[in-house]
């Protein structure tokens, strides 16, 4: 069956680009307002008018450039910073000398900080330090001599830009770490799913061949020995830890991409939530027999197809353990309950029970019947699997799937934004 590959796109810096876009427009209007308010004090207003004409056109025309890291290229940053520095250096030419000496605003005013912040968001604190240093030098040249107000403004821009650049670098590193953790988790879950399938089929066949071959003797015994060796090797393979994850792909404009492999689809292109629910009882009925008693409610127990199959497979794994460890003559009972809070399936047998510590030992040996085929399945559905065993009094496995779990109908509605009642 084809698998669905879900691509998650993460970007913690994208809000910064949106904020920077708004900042550039607002500061452009602010600088223009300052000029119009003090128009009569300018010595050469024509110079200022020409500069502001360029500033307005440049700011509005380059809004897409500051919409994301991919569009904010180095040539754009260089020209943008050049316009800011030109405005600072043109201030003594256009404005009155007295206003410059008294610390009046430069032509671009605080619009200059937008250029520096673009460097910070694009390249981190080192790029921010470079841009803010050039702005500081231009401000000192424009004033002619360092004053307290000039130094205050220079240091403020320098520190703020470097701090923002550093935060962006930390956010990107955290984003990559989170993306890698999600891929590792996805790879681990896929390995566990494959391990369950292998345990339910291949490993059990190999174990049966080993037992029958040993019992028959002769050439069959050799075949059984080889099957046993392959069983041990396969168990070691499926319990050897998570498989290596692919290298994360990154798009500077949108952030890290995480590709998660999900459960196989029954039909290509069909949405999981659009499929009709399955009555869990119909999947458990085949397990009933001479030595297995099935007790079920009178009404259907609807579940999404994938969840219903997983619960039925967990019940099948529990019954396989009964046959294998309690003997073919042992009796088992399956009880299905559809409670208001969840669906509970209990599998109980009259076998000898499980010795204390045996489950931990079996898991260490790579035997995944309880750890993966039962508990792993319910855990992936958002439920739990509890096992109670008293030596000499049989074993009871309780599979509980809450109604709000992702694998249930209510959980599926919540995940799609439904308004179902609980």
Automatic annotation (TrEMBL):
Residues 402-422 are annotated as: Disordered. Gene3D superfamilies: 1.20.5.1930, Histidine kinase-like ATPase, C-terminal domain (3.30.565.10). Residues 6-179 form the DUF5931 domain. Residues 190-230 form the Signal transduction histidine kinase subgroup 3 dimerisation and phosphoacceptor domain. InterPro entries: DUF5931, HATPase_C_sf, HATPase_dom, Sensor_HK_TwoCompSys, Sig_transdc_His_kin_sub3_dim/P. It comes from the Bacteria. The keyword Cell membrane does not apply. Residues 312-404 form the Histidine kinase/HSP90-like ATPase domain. Keywords: Kinase, Membrane, Transferase, Transmembrane, Transmembrane helix, Two-component regulatory system. The chain crosses the membrane at residues 21-40, 46-63, 75-94, 150-168. NCBIfam families: HK_morpho_MacS (NF047322). This is DUF5931 domain-containing protein. It comes from Streptomyces griseoaurantiacus. The lineage of its organism: Bacteria, Bacillati, Actinomycetota, Actinomycetes, Kitasatosporales.
